[in-house]
Design goal:
By secondary structure, the chain is of the alpha+beta class. The protein folds into 2 domains: about 10 and about 185-275, DNA polymerase, domain 1, CATH 1.10.150.900; about 15-180, Alpha-Beta Plaits. Helices cover about 35% and strands about 20% of the residues. It contains 9 helices and 9 strands. The chain has helices at about 30-35, 40-50, 75-80, 85-95, 105-115, 155-165, 190-205, 220-230, 255-275, and strands spanning about 10-15, 15-25, 30, 120-125, 135, 140-145, 175-180, 185, 210-215. The chain has a 4-stranded antiparallel β-sheet with strand order 4-6-2-7. The chain has a 3-stranded mixed β-sheet with strand order 8-1-9. A two-stranded antiparallel sheet has the order 3-5. The protein is elongated. The chain starts with 7 loop residues before the first strand and ends with a helix.
C-alpha cells in the first residue's frame, strides 16, 4: 500500500540483474610497506571501476543501458504528483540526511519508473579491529541493476559484462559472475481484471485505491502474464514502514483483516467479468 489508510493498486514492477565482481591482484595478501606502490591494490581498482558506473547526476554510464527504457507518460507523472508523498517525513523515517537520484525526476519517479545501478556489498582486505597494513590480494563487490519496461535482463547483463571487461585494468584478474535476475512487469491499469481488483479493494477498505508502481522485483509476475496470456493483478496489503527484508518485519493487523475481506470480494468481481475470449 502507498501509505497507511491509502489502499493501492500496483500495475508495474522493476526487473533485476545481479552480479558478483571478483578482482585478484596477487597470489596472497602482501605487506603494504614492502609492496605498496609497486603492485595494484584490488580494493582501489574496484573502487575506481565502481565509481565509473554513474555520473554526478545519477545517470548510469554503461553504454546502451537506456536504449529500451519506456519513458514515463505525462498522465503518470501528473497522477503521481498528486499522491500524498512527504519528502521530509520520508527522510526522517529512514534516517536519510539528503535524498539523491537521477537528475530531472522526483523520488517516486526514480524508485518506480527509472532503472538503477546499486552496490549491494563490498569485501576486501583487513576489516577487523585495530590496524594491519595489508595490501589485499582480492576485492569483491555484489552489484545489482533494477530494470524498467522494456529492458531485458539478458541484454542488460551482457552490456554490463562488456563494460566491466573494458574498464578493468590489466593489473588485476577479473571474474564477473551472473547471480540471478528477472524481467520488469507492467500491465494496463484499465484492463477489466485490475479494475475488478480495484472495486474489491474499495469494498474491503472503504475507499478507492490509488494507482502506483513498485520499485521492487517479483519475476514470476511477468512469467505468469507471458505464459498464461492473462494480465497479472497485484493485491498487496503491506505498508512501507513494515521493515520488508529487515529485522522485525511485520504486518498491520487491520490491513490483514481488510485484505481478507477484499480478497473474497475479488473472486466475486472476477466471476462477474466472465471468461476471457
Amino acid at each position: 500500500m502507498f501509505d497507511r489508510g491509502v489502499p493501492s493498486m500496483c500495475y508495474g514492477l522493476r526487473g533485476l540483474v545481479y552480479f558478483q565482481i571478483d578482482l585478484r591482484g596477487s597470489r596472497t595478501d602482501l605487506h603494504s610497506g614492502s609492496f605498496g606502490g609497486a603492485v595494484a591494490n584490488p580494493a582501489m581498482v574496484l573502487a575506481q571501476m565502481l565509481a565509473q558506473m554513474k555520473d554526478r547526476g545519477g545517470r548510469i554510464k554503461i553504454p546502451g543501458f537506456y536504449d529500451d527504457v519506456v519513458a514515463l507518460t505525462d498522465e503518470e507523472r501528473t497522477a503521481w504528483a498528486t499522491l500524498p508523498f512527504n519528502e521530509k517525513k520520508y527522510k526522517k523515517e529512514f534516517g536519510i540526511p539528503k535524498l539523491f537520484g537521477e537528475t530531472g525526476y522526483t523520488t517516486l519517479e526514480r524508485t518506480w519508473a527509472r532503472p538503477t545501478f546499486e552496490i549491494n556489498g563490498l569485501l576486501s582486505g583487513f576489516t577487523g579491529e585495530g590496524a594491519k597494513t595489508v595490501l589485499p590480494a582480492v576485492a569483491m563487490a555484489k552489484v545489482s541493476m533494477r530494470l524498467v519496461p522494456n529492458q531485458l535482463p539478458d541484454k542488460i547483463a551482457k552490456l554490463f559484462e562488456d563494460h566491466v571487461t573494458k574498464i578493468a585494468p590489466k593489473t588485476v584478474e577479473l571474474k564477473v559472475t551472473r547471480m540471478h535476475g528477472g524481467k520488469p512487469w507492467m500491465t494496463s491499469y484499465d484492463n477489466p481484471f485490475v479494475q475488478a481488483a480495484a472495486r474489491a479493494i474499495e469494498r474491503g477498505f472503504g475507499k478507492p485505491p490509488v494507482l502506483t508502481r513498485e520499485g521492487g522485483s517479483i519475476p514470476v509476475v511477468s512469467t505468469f502474464q507471458e505464459e498464461l496470456g492473462l494480465p497479472s493483478v497485484l493485491f498487496g496489503v503491506g505498508l512501507p514502514d513494515e521493515n520488508a527484508h529487515a529485522p522485525n518485519e511485520k504486518l498491520d493487523v487491520g490491513n490483514f483483516h481488510n485484505g481478507i475481506i477484499a480478497s473474497s470480494i475479488l473472486y466475486e468481481e472476477i466471476a462477474s467479468i466472465g471468461a476471457p475470449a
